[in-house]
């Protein structure tokens, strides 16, 4: 009788921990229109391996990070925010993507306030 209760208790704890890990490891919301456009210009590449996911840089072959599954997307977002602080500029209803020498690569008109909030929240780029 006691062993059944212990078994159910352990099962419940395991399910709870799996649910918490799933919630913590979930990526932040990304805008379906803007994120793929901006992603073309970011130097980060996600590589899938048997051991998990790796973050690589296109411009630096020595750069390689292998965060655990729970922290993977938060680390990728941190790296993208660091990149965005130097390469993204928000002017009114227009997002400007810059190269490493601050030359303009692309202007993207924002179609809604929701897209502007995405840029401000995900990349932490403010309107100047």
Looking at the structure, what is the overall shape?
A: elongated
> β content, as a range?
15-25%
Poorly predicted runs: none
Q: Give the overall average pLDDT.
A: 90
User: What composes the largest sheet?
Assistant: 3 strands, antiparallel
State the distance separating the first and last CA atoms. Answer: 67 Å
Radius of gyration: 20 Å
| Number of helical segments with 4 or more residues | 4
Please write the string of helix (H) and strand (E) elements: HHEEEHEEEH
Q: Output the structural class.
A: alpha+beta
Helix content: 40-55%
Quaternary: single chain
- Side by side, the strands of the main sheet go 1-2-3
Count every beta strand, where a strand is a DSSP E run of 2 or more residues: 6
What is the fold's blueprint, element by element?
Elements: H1 2-25, H2 34-39, E1 44-49, E2 52-57, E3 64-65, H3 72-87, E4 88-91, E5 94-98, E6 104-109, H4 113-122
């Amino acid at each position: 009788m006691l062993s059944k209760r212990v078994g159910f208790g352990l099962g419940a704890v395991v399910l709870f921990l799996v649910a918490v890990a799933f919630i913590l490891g979930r990526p932040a919301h990304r805008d379906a229109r803007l994120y793929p456009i901006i992603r073309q210009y970011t130097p980060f590449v996600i590589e899938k391996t048997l051991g998990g996911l790796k973050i690589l840089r296109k411009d630096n072959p020595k750069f390689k990070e292998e965060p655990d599954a729970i922290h993977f997307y938060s680390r990728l977002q941190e790296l993208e925010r660091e990149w965005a602080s130097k390469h993204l500029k928000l002017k009114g209803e227009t997002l400007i993507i810059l190269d490493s020498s601050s030359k303009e690569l692309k202007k993207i008109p924002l179609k809604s306030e929701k897209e502007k909030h995405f840029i401000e929240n995900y990349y932490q780029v403010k309107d100047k």
